[in-house]
Amino acid sequence: MTVPIYISAEDLEEVVHLVRRQYGYDFGDYARASLQRRVIRCMQKAGCLTAFELKYQLTNDERFFAWFIESLTVNVTEMFRDPAFYKELRNTVLPKLASYPILKIWHAGCSTGEEVFSMAILLHEAGLLNRTRLYATDLNPANLERARQGIVPLQNMKEYTSNYIQSGGTNDFSSYYTARYENAIIHKEYRKNIVFATHNLATDQVFNEFQLVCCRNVLIYFNRELQNRVMTLFSNSLAPLGYLALGMKESLLFSEARDQFDVVSPVVRIYRSKT
Amino acid sequence: MTGCRVVAIGGSAGSIPVVTALLQALPTSFPFAVFVVLHRLKNVTSSMDTILTSKGRGLVIGEPDDKEAIVAHRVYLAPQNYHLLIEADRTISLDYSEPVHYSRPSIDVTFESIAMAYAGSAVAILLSGANQDGADGLLAIVRQGGVAIVQDPATAEYPVMPQAAINRNKNAVVLTPEHIASFLHTLND
Ligand SMILES: C[S@@+](CC[C@H](N)C(=O)[O-])C[C@H]1O[C@@H](n2cnc3c(N)ncnc32)[C@H](O)[C@@H]1O
Which one is catalytic: B101, B121, B133, B136? Predict the structure, then answer.
């Protein structure tokens, strides 16, 4: 049996403070319940039995810190996760976007790329991929490193194929990748318009203007204050009448920015800027 | 028991009939919030909230959004494919991290979080199931001074989960579904 490892609310604040002061990463406005679970998980993996040990390692070992950041964020993702969402994109959003000569789409918190690969496939099927530039950003450099390789675990492809079909896809899903050993490699032609870059939603600014911003299952890790700030960032990053897509349980209702958006799809949480 | 602020119910295989019976047995007004965590399939449209609502006699049952504020006299069903956590300010946080015991939502995750947020004013109930989820969560509830109840394995369609919880928790109260239902009434002070 593993020894129960625990970190108190006070120690957690000290760790947040240390990480901000020494390394410039700001987790001050992350929702505490999940942050605490993640820090405890890191302590377990690293064999730190006490908060003191964790703080000691963070202070004295930069490589440990790099590992800590990579393990702290929740990186789980899927291709065509929530098929109903992708179906709505296909049927409602992409036909509207088709009228733009050039499209720019931002995936904020793209993790290892599964979501942006799915989007590229949708765009390809809608005949829009060649005039679209996809910006996929994340705070975690290890995620981006993996995403750039276009590699997805092969064992997940069965589930992703089923998601794809439920989303209304009618092509042979295996035509989008090559299977090699344990990996599925998404074909280069579907990735060539994707730019991967680091961007921290808590501290970085607007960097371009987009017709569609996707930020799914990232805001759940933030407290309301940070959610509000990020919503303003999105609002300022959207072209007039641009779309904003959130995760299935993320709502604009609690946000100060709600008045600036129309609800396009209440179930799959797609919104559109009023201006 | 007095001062109960939250009742959390965790169930897996074979638990739906018991969950519905318990929801039906809730007093018409109750001064606490109820959380239900059930193991379910992901990426299929689920009508679990409507099923429970139709059986729940006018209860407000729903899947919460992230950062929703918790109010009493409401039943919150953990959404499929998310863990459900409680913040110190009594709002709900959803989390998409790795499954625990192959499960997302995981009962352990919600029970542990409720133990932290509600300490002695929490009641957690673990029902039928075929895996080990919930045992650690009940331990956390007891450690923080809350009440842990386990469905009598002899009455469970799948006894593995309640039995695992009993083995891990000497302080858990083992009750039949009928007795759990009557216990819920004593919470209505
Ligand atoms: C659960 S994943 C979501 C992946 C994908 N959008 C999906 O829904 O499947 C959350 C991602 O948000 C990233 N993230 C967390 N905090 C962030 C921040 N402040 N700025 C940018 N990305 C962040 C994490 O590194 C992680 O890759």
Answer: B133
